[in-house]
Amino acid sequence: MENLNHFIESLNGILFSDYTVYALLAVGLLFTLWSGFGQYRALTHGVAVVRGKYDDKNDPGAINHFQALSAALSATVGLGNIGGVALAVALGGPGAVLWMWLIGILGMALKMTEVTQSMLYRNTDDPENPHGGPMFVVKKGFAKWGLGPIGTVIGGIFVVTLLISALTGGNMFQAWNVADITNTYFEIPQVVTGIVLAVGVGLVIIGGIKRIGSVAGKIVPVMCLLYVIAALYVIIMNIGEIPAMFALIVKSGLPGASPDAAGAFLGGTFGYAAMWGVKRALFSSEAGQGSSPIAHSAAKTDEPVREGVVAGLEPFIDTIVVCTLTALVILSSGAYNRGPEAFPESAVVQIVQATDADDQPIEGSWTVDSGVLPEKTAEAKRILRTGESEAGWRENESVFVVVQGDDNADTGLNLHRISGNVAKDDDGNWIVNWGSLEAASQPEFLTAEDGSLEVGIYSDYAGASLTAHAFDRVTPGLGMYLVSIAAWLFALSTMISWSYYGEQGVYYFFGKNAKGAVVIYKVIYCALILLTTIAAMPIIAQDDGTKRPLIGTDAELDMWTTLGLGVMLVANIPIMLIFGNQAMKAYREYFKRMDAGGDPPHEAPPITEVVEGKDVE
What we know:
CATH class of the largest domain: Mainly Alpha
Radius of gyration: 25 Å
Number of strands: 11
Helix content: 55-70%
C-alpha cells in the first residue's frame, strides 16, 4: 500500500509541478486580456441570462440556463468549498486564500472560454439530449482540418482523464468526507454512510440530465443559502478579527512573508501556500478542467457565447464568495492553528525507532510511545460537548503530534506530523496506535523557551471536519449539525453531476450503442462510493500488527483527488489554447451584435418557473 501511495505522490508531483501552475495562470490571464476582462460581462449579462430573460423553448437543448448553471455549480459548490478550503488553509496557511482568489478571478475567463468552445462544437444530433465537452471540441475541431483520427484519439485521452477525475474528486473525495464527518459526530460506521449515499445517488442518476438538472436546481440554492447564513453568523461573532484576517491572508500569500508555524499548523514557504491555494481553488471551481462544459452543453440555447458567459459566474460564486466565507470561518475561529486537545506528561512520551511485526527495529523509521492517554482539555470538551467525567476520546479517532527534525520536503521547514489512531487496550485505557515518520535522523519534540518539551496531542480534523470544528469553536454543536447537513447535500449534488460527466465520457467511447456501457458505469460509480467509505475504516494491516485506514489523513485524501484534477488539467489546457481563437472570435461577434441592440431580452419569467425549468417546456 505504501508503494502505491508513493507512486501517486510522485505522479502528482509531476502533474502539479510549478510549470503546471504557471501555465494555468498564464492561460487564465491570456483569456482575461483577450476577452477584454470578460469577467464584467459574466457579472452583468450573465445574471440576466440566468434570470431567464433569454430563455427560448424552441432552442436545442434539454434544460434552461439556470438549471445548467445549477448542475455545474452542484459539482463545484460542494465539499471542495467545505473540505477543500479546509485542506488548503490547514496545510498551506492563510496565504493559500489569496491564491484562491486569484484563481477565482482568472477562472471566470477560463470557464467562459472552455464552455463557449464546447457549445460551438457540441453534438446536437438529438436536440433534446445534446452532448458536449472538450472531447467533442477536439474531435469535431480536428475533423474540420482533415485530422479526424488524431482528434478522436486526443478526445479519447481526455475522456480517460475525465473518468479518473469523476471517480476520485467527483466521487471518492465526497464520499470520504461525508463518511468521516458523520462518523466523527454521530459515530455512525462509515460503511453505513456509504450505503445511504450510494442508494441516494443511484436513484437520481438513473433519471439522466433532466432529473439531475431538476434536483440540482432545488438543492444548490437551498444549500448555498443555508451555509452562507451560518458562515456569516460565525464571522459576525468574530467581527473584530476579520480585518486582521484579511491582512494576514494578503501578507501570507506574498513572497517573503510566510506565517510562522503555530499549534496544528506546520507553517510553509510562499510557494507552498501558493500551491495549496491554486490546487484547492482549481479543485473547487474546476476552472480549466473541462468538466463544467459537459453540464452547460445541455442548455437550451443556440448562442454558444451566451452559455459561456453564464459559466463565468461559477468561479465567482464558488471561489470568491463561498470559499472565502469558509476560509474566514476557519481563520477567525483559530481552528487552523489550534492548540492540542491533550497534554501527556513529557516524561512519559518519547520518540522511538519503529519496529516490524517481529519487533525488529526499522532503519530510518520513527514512531511515538505515549502510554495511556490523558483526558482532553476542558476547552476541547466544551467544543465537543463532552461530559466532564468523560475522557473525550473516540475509538479510531485520528490524532497527531508535531515533531522537529530533518527538513520537510513539502513545507520547506523542519516540522513534521506523526499520526495515529485512538484505541482501547485490554484494560480499557485509551491509547494511540501510532504510525511512523521516515527520517534519516531521530526527530525530537518541540522545546519551549524555558527548555521544557512541548508535547501535545492534536485531533486530526481532516477536510470538512476542520470546518465543522471551526463552527463548533464559536457555538458548540453548530458544526456538528450544520456542516453535517451541508456536507450531505453538497456531496450528493456533486456526485450526481460528476456521474453525468463520466457518463458523457462513456457516450463518447460507445456513441449510440452506449446504453449498456452507461448502466455498467453507473453501477461502478455507485459501488465506488461504498468502497471509499470502507477505505476510511481501519482495514490495512501494519508491520506492528495494527490496522489503519486506506485513506486516513488530510494529506492522503488530497493525494487521491489531486491525481484526478492534475490529469484533466494537463489534458484540457492544450485543447483550450488550440481552439481559443474560435471562442474569442465568437465572443467578440456576439457582444458586438448585443451592444448594437440585437436579440433584446424579453420579460423575465416567474422565478419558480425558471427554477423548475417550466419556462422552456
